[in-house]
Structures are given as structure tokens and as C-alpha cells.
Amino acid sequence: MKITRVETFAVPPRWLFCRIETDDGLVGWGEPVVEGRADTVRTAVHELADQFLTGADPSRIEDLWQVMTKGSFYRGGPVLSSAVAGIDQALWDIAGKALGAPVHRLLGGPVRERARAYCWVGGDEPAAVRDQVAAQVEAGFTAVKMNASGRMSRLPTVSELNDVAARAEAAREVLGPERDFAIDFHGRFSTAGAVRAAGVLEPYAPMFVEEPVLPEYTHLIGQVTGSTALPVATGERLYSRTDVLPALRAGIAVLQPDLSHAGGISECRRIAALAETFDVAVAPHCPLGPLALAASLQLAFCTPNFLIQEQSIGIHYNADAELLDYVADRSVFRFDEGHLLRPTALGLGVEIDEKAVRDADGSAKSWHNPLWRYGDGAFAEW
Ligand SMILES: [Mg+2]
């Protein structure tokens, strides 16, 4: 079997899909994208395809992963790691279809029958938090996640810290003791600010506090883990085993690799195994589309230290298109009491609606995250 064609499709709201075709007629799909840099990653995918993929045997996933990540001297980072990630997903999809099995069966078989999932809730005011959490409880979710704050001063004011606590208090009141909320610091806090914010959150017992420091300050995350009893999570902006190692050594409790950023199923499988040696749970980051979610679930179902899956079905921030718009059978992402059921179809387990994808290609408005500034005009983290 040989790879004959690699195509990419930029589709709303901000996603990039990759389609790999073989001379056997098998087709694999993946989702190589960095939010806001879809065109850049698209170029990287085609450069990798021209250099390494066309004419290659798609079943040699590990060898192709090695040469794609190491064979061009410069390596790593979000763009290259995300390009490889989506290609890797598509190669696993082909492998599953060729061998007649879902990917998780090729990786040792299922270790669970359903995967707990959470839904993101927005809202800047406690009243909005209360309503949105209640809606997700009503929908059956047992956990939600929300941002800790909006724009955050370098050293938080009493008022800002009170707001952080008020939202957490509102969420806990609705959820009660049986359900969970996680709270995302989103890299908006300084290290010192994150320590103070974690302190005010302790009475509300969030499941974890996420990205308390920016990825470039991962060497400082131990100051946060050492200061609070709350479990600390990070990882959506880390792209390899070596990237995550300092966080693991610093005592995080939850690692959040993104299957579309951190080298795909191949590398995230290894990241999960590395995390297990530190007694750290894995909660794959996934605000992306159907292929990223499908790849995440394949990992979730064969990973003993899996904790919970992020997913964005029907989420408010995807205004132009929705995850289920691109799948042929919407029932593949079925929920049962806030859990996603184990996929049984071959490969990644999701059939893409190819016509919908081809029709949507090129119609995505370029997406960029907000650019925030402080009152004095200086840049502020979003
Ligand atoms: Mg996050």
C-alpha cells in the first residue's frame, strides 16, 4: 500500500482537515491545526507530504513519525507538531481501516466502556455562570469547565480575586458535592497571582486548576503546585514528551495534551504513559473538530490513567459551523450520563461527510483570538 494523495481542507469555524488517500482506495482523515494559524499549518502539512509521504507505505506510522518530526533538522513547536499530529491521526485511521479495527484496539484494546466528558461554560458574571452550569447539569454532564477570570492584573486586586471566588462559589452551589468543575487560569495570571488565586479557590474544591502559568514558565509551575492542595493541570500548549517533563516533575496532577497539537495519537500515547509514571492523570485538551475529538477518544479508551475528555459539541464559540456538521453519522458521538460511548467503527471511528467538507473548504473566515490590553495600553494575556 502506498500514499497517493494528501489533501487539506480549511473549514469553518477555524479548523483544518487532512485527507490521505492510498492506492488501495483507503482514505484516512486527521485534523492538523493551530487555532488562528490554519493556513500556516496547511503549508507545513503539504511540505511534509511532498517530502515524506507521497509514495510511502502508510502502515509505517512510527517510521514516518520519526522522519516527519526529526528528518528536517529543525523540529518541535506548535506548527510543525500540529502538522505531524493531523497526519499521524490520518495514518492511524488508515491502519484501522486496513486491519479492520478501531484504533484503540490496535493500541491494546479498551480499558473502559465510556469516557467521562465535560463541557465548557462561559459567562463573566456569577449569575451567568449559575445559569450555564445548570443547563449542563440538565443536559446530563457531571463536570464543567470555566475560565477563572477575564483580563487579569499582573498582581490581582482584591476585587479581581473576589470575582474569581464568586464564580467558583456559584458553580459549586449549582453542582453540589457530587459533580465537578474545573477552572482554567488560561495563562492570564502571573505566577504570584496564580498562587493567590488558587488560595481563594480552595474552599470551592475545583477538580483542578488549569494552566496557572504560561507554558514558557513551566519551570515555575512548582511554585503553584507547592502552594496549594488543589490539583494543578497543564499541557494544551506543550507539544512533546520532553515539553511535558518539567511539569510532571513539578508535581502537576493532570496533563492535558492536545491530540491535534502534540504529535497526534503516536506521541500522546507516549505522553500518557510518561504521565502514568508520575501518577498523573490525562485529560486531553480538545476545543477542535470531529477528527480531533475522535482521535482523543481513541486514546481515552485505551489509556488507564485517562481522567476526563474536553469536547465542544454545540459550544457557543463555534458560531459559523458545528462539530457535527462534518460527520456522516451524528450518532457516533453519543452521550450517556455525561459520558461519551466507546466508538466501534474502524480507524478513528468517525465517518466524515466528504461533500460537506469539500463544500466548506475555503469558506472559513480567518479566526484570531482577541488581543487584550491593560488600561495603560500594554499587552495583556488573553
Ligand atoms: Mg485551557
How is this structure best described in words?
This protein has 382 residues and is an alpha/beta fold. It is 37% helix and 15% strand. The chain is built from twelve helices and 15 strands. It has helices spanning 38-53, 61-70, 77-99, 103-106, 126-138, 158-175, 191-201, 221-225, 241-249, 264-276, 290-300, 354-360; strands at 3-11, 15-22, 27-30, 114-120, 143-147, 180-184, 209-210, 232-234, 254-255, 281-282, 309-310, 335-336, 339-341, 372-373, 379-380. Strands 4, 5, 6, 7, 8, 9, 10, 11, 12 and 13 form a ten-stranded mixed sheet that branches. It is globular, with a radius of gyration of 20 Å. The model has no long low-confidence stretch (mean pLDDT 96). Bound molecules: magnesium ion (MG). The site of magnesium ion (MG) has 5 residues, from loops.
End-to-end C-alpha gap: 46 Å
Q: What letter string, H or E per element, gives the SSE order?
A: EEEHHHHEHEHEHEHEHEHEHEEEHEE
Query: If you compute it from the alpha carbons, what radius of gyration comes out, rounded to the nearest whole angstrom?
Result: 20 Å
**How confident is the prediction overall: mean pLDDT?**
96
Q: How helical, in percent, are the residues? A: 25-40%
**Largest beta-sheet details:** 10 strands, mixed
The parts where pLDDT drops under 50 for at least 5 residues are: none
What structural class should be given to the helix and strand makeup? alpha/beta
Dominant shape: globular
Task: Please tally the helical runs, counting DSSP H or I stretches of 4 or more residues.
Answer: 12
- What bound compounds does this protein have? magnesium ion
Number of strands: 15
Give the strand content.
15-25%
